[in-house]
Design goal:
single chain; 274 residues; alpha/beta; Rossmann fold; seven-stranded parallel sheet; 8 helices; globular; binds nicotinamide-adenine-dinucleotide
Length: 274
């Protein structure tokens, strides 16, 4: 029994009644956790993202072995808005119409506002926000026609509150929550839901780089930098895991979550409760 047994399904090119999920930035970190959980719950996956081709091959083989899902990879560079359209077209051609779109790809750049390079600002906004808009725009007509769709935007605690030196990231994540709400309103009667997940600290390559930078700039160990990072923001004092976020994505994709749209789900160990 799959998590979405009671919601509408459609035939994939293989004739099976499985959902098709496109997860951007799923070659590592949170996106991979979401792809793994959706595949385990019975979805075929368009695994999208950059990275070393041999590691991606390994990830695909592992996911196939664990879940029996069809897994197809796309490596479109989402710093160009047209790449999101190419990605959706390729996913549709290879797996069929998209039932679940997870806009997860994201990058970070850290600098004070007055030193923030405009090209870095444009890059962060393009990958974290514009690509989600373009992908959403291109899946909506077929979701509306089939009267089923799940759109999940992976924002951040930084969609709700700010931290110094993260102007582009914080602006992009606040923007992504705005896009979530507008998409939810425009699709509220179409069998489509659009929700956002706002994780706190999750130990992924994106955050490992920030821990490393903190350790170097303060001349402290990685363990001390990790303790400081969690201590500053996350009352639980532990990382949220990609698997926990994956399970939430499965729930939000299920028929039990049909009444949730435009919601912002915090998974931040208490960060934004303060
Ligand atoms: P990650 O670095 O492990 O993964 C990022 C993914 O995005 C990778 O698959 C990468 O290939 C892809 N990507 C990066 N640039 C791209 C580009 N130009 N074109 C296409 N794909 C690109 O990071 P993560 O921590 O797993 O982050 C995933 C999402 O979760 C991001 O949107 C991030 O902002 C958000 N998030 C992360 C945390 C955290 O603590 N790690 C917290 C809150 C929100």
């Amino acid at each position: 029994m799959t998590a979405w047994q009671n919601s509408s399904t459609h035939s994939s090119p293989t004739g099976s009644q499985r959902k098709v999920a496109l997860v951007t930035g799923s070659t590592s970190g949170i996106g991979l956790g979401i792809a793994r959980a959706l595949a385990a719950a019975g979805a075929d996956i368009y695994l999208h993202g950059l990275g070393d081709p041999s590691s991606i091959k390994e990830v695909i083989a592992q996911l196939k072995g664990e879940t029996g899902a069809r897994i197809v990879h796309g490596g479109q560079d989402l710093s160009r808005a047209e790449a999101a359209l190419e990605m959706v077209a390729d996913a549709r051609e290879q797996l069929g119409e998209i039932d679940i779109l997870v806009n997860n790809a994201g990058i970070q750049h850290v600098a004070p506002v007055e030193d923030f390079p405009i090209e870095k600002w444009n890059m962060v906004l393009a990958i974290n926000l514009t690509s989600a808009f373009a992908a959403t725009q291109s899946v909506l007509p077929s979701m509306k026609a089939r009267r089923f769709g799940r759109i999940l935007n992976i924002a951040s605690a930084h969609g709700l509150v700010a931290s110094a030196h993260k102007s582009a990231y914080v602006a992009s994540k606040h923007g992504l929550l705005g896009l979530t709400k507008v998409t939810a309103l425009e699709t509220a009667r179409d069998g489509i839901t659009c929700n956002a997940i706002c994780p706190g600290w999750v130990k992924t390559p994106l955050v490992e780089k920030q821990i490393q930078a903190k350790a170097e700039s303060l001349g402290i160990s990685i363990n001390e930098a990790t303790a400081q990072l969690l201590g500053e923001k996350q009352p639980s004092q532990r990382f949220v895991t990609p698997d926990e976020i994956g399970q939430m994505a499965v729930f939000l994709s299920s028929s039990a979550a049909s009444g949730m749209t435009g919601s912002i789900v915090s998974m931040d160990g208490g960060w934004t409760a303060q």
